[in-house]
Amino acid sequence: MHSKLLDELNENGYIVIEDFLTAEEVDSLYQAGRALCLDAPQNNRKIFSTIKQEDAQGKELYFMESGDKVRYFFEKGAVGDEGQLLVDPMIALNKVGHALHVEHPAFNAITFSNRVREICWQLNYNKPAVCQTPCVEFLRRQANLMDLPMKVYYPANEKNPVVVLTWKGLNPELPSILLNSHMDVVPVFPENWTHPPFGADIDEEGRIFARGTQDMKSVGMQHLAAVRALKRSGAKFKRTIHISFVADEEMGGRYGMRPFVPTDDFRALNVGFAMDEGLASPDDHLPLFYAERAVWRVYFNISGTAGHGSLLLPNTAGEKLNYIVGKMMEFRRTQVQRLQNNPELVIGDVTTINLTKLGGGVQSNVVPPLLMVCFDCRLALDVDFEEFEANLHKWCADVGGGIEITYEQKQPKVPPTAIDDSNPFWLAFKKATDEMHISIKPQIFTGGTDSRYIRAVGIPALGFSPMNNTPVLLHDHDEFIQADIYLRGVQIFQKIISNVANV
Ligand SMILES: [Zn+2]
């Protein structure tokens, strides 16, 4: 559709739309803005006071974690130690933002109005969405710089975007390549860091310190940098390449990859092969992850005879608990043995069982009617899931019943991605790393990543983070990556992407 607005925008870089808002609407926004100035919550003022958090670290952290609420940015010196305003509130506030457009009714009514939507359509935006997170805006700038189209999806809710940049291939009907990373990181304890955790300081040894330098903003940026370099070199590939950035991986992907995979939007990407996160490696070899264990969080809710602590009652919850814990620990010992007996095995090859929660009891001299014990189980690929579950129930029956099993998480078995001649993408990947003389160690991932959801719908996925000679510091204090390792990783990805996108 031809659009006069678009012509104007292209011509001038801006557009003026007269009478877009009514006088009443302007007034309502003005009144709302005024109220925000006068009524900014005292505790929020404190967060921003910048008096106790003069360093960049505090501000950076705040900036990254503050997208969930309306936030108030005060002028330096406007707020006292206790959050009290030191100057007239009408000049104390620098700006208000972040969740303002979602949460404040006056701003929400305009931002999400059909008029704004209509303008977006006229400017040729496809599926316009209001994006407020700094990360999405950063990626949009990258997409613009690289001249790649970008789409933002919200498979779970407004707060959890999925961003996809697309570089169309020469044969766009072929299944595509997906380079996936997650935008979220785990929290930090700034007092345990020797550098600001969101500052990306580089020390004299060339180490870049920041949360996400290993897990996994680094890899997301390498994906972007590799594609940018390839594009600039004039390279063309058969297959379309999608670079995706998802939310919520660290919390299990419930608001990110998991709900995205079954959508029509995901299916429309027509993914034939995906790459996602791996792990750093302290030596010269690079781990490559082709499978994951299944996470089961099992609760045993154990009821038994209650009564006075001076008696010897039959079938108490405590006896049953002891039996169940004993059986689980017995199984655990067999897995410890397997690891000890076979140096070839790594932790991802065996089943791990850990007692993680205990609860119950009312008073120290009362035999309780109910006790709870929870285990974190990671079922290895060689486990028969039905048999494992049948065993849990059998133990409960053997000890006299009255035990209810519930699951906080119970992942199904997901077949591993083939790393043999049957998988042409693996062959293309391997050819790239062989040619660069990179030693690859295929293995099963210890934890859980978004790759699992991709594999679960039958798409081959490999977890790979090119960070060798790097201590494994994901989720740890002072997470870092060496600058030259990072840059080398960009080259490694260029080679791998070139190969897999031409399969
Ligand atoms: Zn990660």
UniProtKB/TrEMBL annotation:
Active site annotation, chain numbering: 184, 249
Keywords (A to Z) from UniProt: Cytoplasm, Hydrolase, Metal-binding, Zinc
Binding site for Zn(2+) 2: 215, 250, 475
Biological process according to GO: amino acid metabolic process
Superkingdom of origin organism: Eukaryota
Documented EC number(s): 3.5.1.14
Cofactors named for this entry: Zn(2+)
Family as reported in the entry's similarity comment: Belongs to the peptidase M20A family.
Protein name from the UniProt record: N-acyl-aliphatic-L-amino acid amidohydrolase
